[in-house]
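Why should sequence recovery work at all? Because a backbone constrains its sequence more than one might expect. Tight turns favour small or flexible residues, buried strands favour hydrophobic ones, and helices have their own preferences. The token representation captures these environments compactly. In the example below, the structure is given first.
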């Protein structure tokens, strides 16, 4: 295993991207723009012309068109790279990954071919990832009817009189969250893959977009949730404006409930956080993982694990070694309840688990009267960021004394705990 390399840039606490207000990188970051395209030659021409008109330094900006198997290869200007994949259906996630695999920039920007950025888009969108590589930024996607619009470097004069409504649910969410400064475990729903930027560090930490998505929608939300668990901060930058050709998909598909339901069902299995996961059905992924006390007897381990599972809604018992690998069903564990010493729990601990997200805590420690540590409730997001930076001060910690969490002394009577056999 190689030595951990601390990333360059600023390590931020919590979701405090506002600590970057008024700051810009000493040198503009190297940026790779990945433009996803399929059979949209006129729209692509407008997008690429606008990228050619960005006020970001030309020698620190590369543009890559990732084509999802168009019948004819799209035409791109000199200096723009074209990468293609076979036409095997709707594979936007795979196209974005393909483009990213060819990118050389420290910051990646994802655009769709039917989205035209204003001249300051790249500069505004990449400022925070260029300063602090943990920040994932979503720009402001506005809407206009660009049918027959000119191919120009500055789209702003062209859209006058062509504007279409912005989705109210999204603008309301940005207002309530103060542009995602007050983000939580479900704020992934407020990112848009067509106007998204992140550092190469965060993108590589997630492993890229999930290529099992083979229809419109959801791949950006699922990716953002995994980025969040890898320690990302989420920010909306309304100054980074790009114009989408046509109305919001929700407006176009107002009556297409079946498609939206299919997306919600898929995400329910992949994003197991409360409010996204099913109410009763099990999910493909574990949200809250519980590990047994090391070295405990079979009976003590049984009572400890069973009583904690009963006290923490939505939790599952997992093997500690498997959890450390974080693969398969365990690749998006949000909270780890580590049973440090054998215990019996006689109350619901949901409030302690909820405090991880509600209060932005890194660790909640449950202690006995004498200070003995009984449980550690850890945030995976906090652990990922602190491990990346080699620090333990980026998220606050709390210590609790809970009367109904009792140390097990000696061998418990499992039959009595279960209710007896008589």
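From this structural description, the recovered sequence reads:
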């Amino acid at each position: 295993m190689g030595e951990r390399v601390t990333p360059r840039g600023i390590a931020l606490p919590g979701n405090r991207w506002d600590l970057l207000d008024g700051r810009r990188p000493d040198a503009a970051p190297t940026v790779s723009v990945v433009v996803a395209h399929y059979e949209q030659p006129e729209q692509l021409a407008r997008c690429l012309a606008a990228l050619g008109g960005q006020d970001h330094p030309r020698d620190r900006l590369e543009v890559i068109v990732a084509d999802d198997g168009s019948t004819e290869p799209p035409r791109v200007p000199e200096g723009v790279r074209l990468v293609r994949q076979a036409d095997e259906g709707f594979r936007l996630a795979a196209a974005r990954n393909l483009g990213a695999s060819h990118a050389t920039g420290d910051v990646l920007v994802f655009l769709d071919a039917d989205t035209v950025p204003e001249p300051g888009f790249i500069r505004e969108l990449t400022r925070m990832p260029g300063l602090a590589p943990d920040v994932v930024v979503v720009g402001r996607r506005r809407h206009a009817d660009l049918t027959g619009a000119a191919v120009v470097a500055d789209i702003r004069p062209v859209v006058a009189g062509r504007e279409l409504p912005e989705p109210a649910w999204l603008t309301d969410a940005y207002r309530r969250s103060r542009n995602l400064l007050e983000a939580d475990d479900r704020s992934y729903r407020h990112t848009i893959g067509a106007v998204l930027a992140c550092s190469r560090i965060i993108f590589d930490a997630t492993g890229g977009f999930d290529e099992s998505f083979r229809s419109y929608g959801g791949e950006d939300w699922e990716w953002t949730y995994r980025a969040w668990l890898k320690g990302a901060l989420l920010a909306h930058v309304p100054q980074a404006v790009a114009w989408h050709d046509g109305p919001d998909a929700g407006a176009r598909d107002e009556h297409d409930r079946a498609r939206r339901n299919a997306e919600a069902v898929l995400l329910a299995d992949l994003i197991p956080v409360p409010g996204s996961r099913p109410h009763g059905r099990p999910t493909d992924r574990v949200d809250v993982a519980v590990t047994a006390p090391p070295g405990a007897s079979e009976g003590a381990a049984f009572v400890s694990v069973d009583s904690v599972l009963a006290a923490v809604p939505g939790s599952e018992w997992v093997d500690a070694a498997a959890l450390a690998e974080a693969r398969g069903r365990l690749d998006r564990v949000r909270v780890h309840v580590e049973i440090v010493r054998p215990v019996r729990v006689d109350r619901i601990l949901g409030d302690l688990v909820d405090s991880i997200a509600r209060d932005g805590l890194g660790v909640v420690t449950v202690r006995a009267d004498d200070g003995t540590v009984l449980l550690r409730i850890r945030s995976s997001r906090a652990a990922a960021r602190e491990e990346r930076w080699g620090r333990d001060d980026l998220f606050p910690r709390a210590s609790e004394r809970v009367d109904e969490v009792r140390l097990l002394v000696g061998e418990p009577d499992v039959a009595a705990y279960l209710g007896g056999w008589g």
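A few observations help interpret the result. The first strand starts at residue 31 and ends at 37.
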